[in-house]
Amino acid sequence: MGENVSQGLEEAKYCINQLVPEEEQSDYHKEIFNAINNAIEIMETKKSIKYCQAIVWVNKIREFRETLKEINIEKADKKRDGQYTIALKELELVLNNEMSLEDVFMNPDNTLRNIMLLAHLDKTK
């Protein structure tokens, strides 16, 4: 979506330049161009932030998968009232691209998210 918005903003600049030749443009036009350029820059920054956030989320999933190797799943599932069973199904959905990472990490009620937070407590010692 961000690319479409940026492209639309670039097209708006082009249209203004077609309607008002550069030598006839006033300070008002320059302000419009500055605002458009700022909006494009913000869109690019947001895209970078989302990419960085996705990397963090992928790493959290990796860490969780490693932590699972140190957990007695049956025992932990019983202790957590079957929540591990649900979380593992959700993990499978994420790995198969049937559930987004955003759905996992931005929803405070997501089972996978909550079990990931609790998993370190369930490690077998």
Outline of the structure:
By secondary structure, the protein is mainly α.
The multimeric state of the shown protein is single chain
Low-confidence stretches: none
What class, by secondary structure content? mainly alpha
Instruction: Give the termini separation.
Output: 47 Å
What is the arithmetic mean of pLDDT? 89
The proportion of residues in beta strands is under 5%
- Could you say how many structural domains there are in total? 2
Relative helix content:
over 70%
Number of helices: 6
Radius of gyration: 24 Å
Q: Which sheet architecture does the biggest sheet show? A: none
- Principal-axes shape call: rod-shaped
**What is the total tally of β strands?**
0
H/E series, N to C?
HHHHHH
Structural account:
This protein is mainly α and 125 residues long. The protein folds into two domains: 1-56, no CATH class; 70-125, no CATH class. It is built from six helices and no strands. The protein has helices at 2-19, 27-68, 73-79, 83-95, 101-106, 111-118. The chain is rod-shaped. The model has no long low-confidence stretch (mean pLDDT 89).
Characteristic key phrases:
mainly alpha, about 120 residues, rod-shaped, 2 domains
Task: Give the SSE layout.
Elements: H1 2-19, H2 27-68, H3 73-79, H4 83-95, H5 101-106, H6 111-118
Helix pairs in contact: 1-2, 4-6
